[in-house]
Structures are given as structure tokens and as C-alpha cells.
């Protein structure tokens, strides 16, 4: 914890912003991809009406 605090006080803001926001951005992209694949799977397997149940 002490290393993170020191890092937050010493590094450039732009570098910290990229390093700390990258995991959240990747997580949101994975979630969006999961939702897209789920919609395609349900739409092809069950039908177009079933897509309404996903939203």
C-alpha cells in the first residue's frame, strides 16, 4: 500500500491515468463483447423475440 501511495505522488498524471484506467477499460470491453456474443447466440438459437429478454 505504501508503494502505491508513493507512486501516486511521484509519477506523472498522464502515466498514472493510463496505468490505472487500463484494467477498467479492458473489463468494460470484455463485458460488451460478452453481451454481443450472448445476443447473437440467443438470436440465432431461440429467435428474435427472445432478444427482448436480454435487455
Automatic annotation (TrEMBL):
Keyword Membrane: yes
Keyword Transmembrane belongs to the record: yes
Keywords: Membrane, Transmembrane, Transmembrane helix
Protein known as: Polysaccharide biosynthesis protein C-terminal domain-containing protein
Membrane-spanning ranges: 16-37
Amino acid at each position: 500500500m505504501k508503494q502505491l501511495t508513493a507512486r501516486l505522488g511521484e509519477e506523472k498524471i498522464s502515466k498514472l491515468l493510463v496505468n490505472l484506467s487500463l484494467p477498467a477499460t479492458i473489463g468494460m470491453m470484455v463485458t460488451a463483447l460478452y453481451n454481443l456474443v450472448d445476443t447473437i447466440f440467443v438470436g440465432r438459437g431461440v429467435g428474435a423475440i427472445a432478444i427482448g429478454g436480454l435487455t
